[in-house]
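cron nightly-structures :: item 1 of 1
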Amino acid sequence: MGSSGNIQGRDGLCFFGKVSATISHDVKNVLAIINEEAGLLHDLSLMAAQGMELEPERLVKLAEKIQNQIKRGDSIIKNMNRFAHSVDVPECEIDLSETVSLVIALFTRMAAAKCVTVTLKEGEKVTAKCDPFSTEMLIARCLEVSMDSAGKDSEITVEVLMKNSEKVISVHGLEQDVAEKEFQAIEVLSKNANASVKMKTQDKILEIIF
């Protein structure tokens, strides 16, 4: 992994593996649905060949379902491509909202499994010079910790903003205290990303500061 020397090797590899596994599951689901719809289309074609009258509306719905899955698959692959290229350079200027949006998309499956909704608020464009891959690791870990803290059927809101001269990713929704050990692990990740983290339990906020 040639992104930077400051990424802790195995942790970075584990993160890459976790995201890759999630993407492969999503792509497999898309292909399974397309296969199912294509099979139904095949069955209808055979029945039509035997004289059954086909309903055009049913064929249109089938085509729409297949097209929607192809669009979904295309979106998943584009996110995978963006994520894979985040290791290309050790440091560059990145759009923080775009990076948060990518991480949220990559962890949609995890959020769904935890019954948590994660939403990125629209805001101004904020950029920061940092290691893209380490920053994605940091954002992902903060989201995971926040989801666990928030619990089932909750909502996590993420906001990117400027506070004086600081560039901040603010994760709202903490309900339970984050274990000291977990927070220390996040602090280590933040150093790799040239950032720092603050936890404001009373405000239910976890902040990443560049």
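cron nightly-structures :: done
The first helix runs from residue 9 to 49.
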